[in-house]
Amino acid sequence: MANQEAGKYVWHNGQIIPWENATIHVMSHVVNYGSSVFEGIRCYETKRGSAIFRLPQHIERLFNSGHIYRMNIPYSKDDIIEACKQMVQVNEFKHCYLRPLIFRGFGPFGVDPFPAPIETYVCSWIWGKYLGAEALEQGVDVCVSSWTRIAPNTLPSMAKAGANYMNSQLIKMEAKINGYVEGIALDINGYISEGSGENIFLIKDNVVLTPPLNSTILQGITRDSIIKISRSLGLEVMERAIPREMLYLADEVFFTGTAAEITPIRSVDKVQVGIGKRGPVTKLIQDKFFAIIDEGEDEYGWLTFIENTKAATQTETALS
Ligand code: PMP
């Protein structure tokens, strides 16, 4: 794929192995029963050097996901934080996407997960803009999914677990087949939940609205960043149940996520949202977000800078 390039090395159970060797048996528990938890993290090439965005928060969520599923992870959070940094360094990436992944591997057959060994990996690759670079300005066309988001006390939405993404895949496939970039799922009560891999925000009369945890969302780290950025910009933020029709009546709507960053939504179900492209409040929030990840202006302490890597601009200056 044009905007993807795999790293040469993968971290597996404390060892650095070639990408090609990061394989598993087809009868592994995870393949049959979906028993994995994972993270998606970005390392940005800021003007001050390469930096991983909110690394400790992502690893905290990874361990929380594992805790919910009674996984005894045989590494500390610091071990996995180090593994993530190492992946950027040994793969000589200036920017990349990081995928810590913990799953139940090959063991005695059967649904009971306990006998299967825990396998821990960190993979990395270059990944361009998820919903397209143009989308960050022009916005995307989306639909409300006919699929309901996973319901409370079925699959826990606070765990970022592989199995949750079967629900996401139903949402994504339906959207794409019908000509949309993405789908928005409603929760079991008919309120807005989230996209297949993104949280959602609405702007109405300069108030920032986003669904609460009870709308079975993943507690997004970008979502948390946007809430904090919005408040520091003096905007009022409300986490509350949002009826579907607010998608059509909002002044602005956008997705947030590690992959999607802040992607404006210009139409929902072919109904134009606001001015039909990125609105002014979205731009204000985006500008602040991009100042952190592009310029490295880190007033929140969200960046973990990686040693031995330099921003391209610095390398170019040194060479000229
Ligand atoms: N919801 C779902 C279902 C997701 O997969 C993601 C991506 N991890 C998000 C929301 C956004 O979370 P984050 O900002 O932590 O990437």
Describe this structure in words.
This protein is of the alpha+beta class and 320 residues long. It folds into 2 domains: 5-128 and 299-319, D-amino Acid Aminotransferase, Chain A, domain 1 (2-Layer Sandwich); 135-278, D-amino Acid Aminotransferase, subunit A, domain 2 (D-amino Acid Aminotransferase, Chain A, domain 2), CATH 3.20.10. It is 28% helix and 30% strand. The protein is built from 9 helices and 18 strands. Strands 1, 2, 3, 4, 5, 6, 7, 8 and 18 form a 9-stranded antiparallel sheet that branches. Strand 12 and strand 13 form a beta hairpin. Helix 2 (55-68) packs across helix 3. The longest helix has 16 residues, at 280-295. It is globular, with a radius of gyration of 20 Å. Mean pLDDT is 94; it is low at 310-320. The chain binds 4'-deoxy-4'-aminopyridoxal-5'-phosphate. 4'-deoxy-4'-aminopyridoxal-5'-phosphate (PMP) binds at residues 40, 168, 194, 197-199, 218, 220-223, 256-258. Residues 40, 168, 194, 197-199, 218, 220-223, 256-258 line the site of 4'-deoxy-4'-aminopyridoxal-5'-phosphate.
How many domains? 2
Q: CATH topology of the largest domain, anyone?
A: D-amino Acid Aminotransferase, Chain A, domain 1
Strand content: 25-35%
Structural class: alpha+beta
Contiguous helical run count: 9
The parts where pLDDT drops under 50 for at least 5 residues are: 310-320
Averaged pLDDT: 94
The N- to C-terminal Cα distance equals: 32 Å
Bound molecules: 4'-deoxy-4'-aminopyridoxal-5'-phosphate
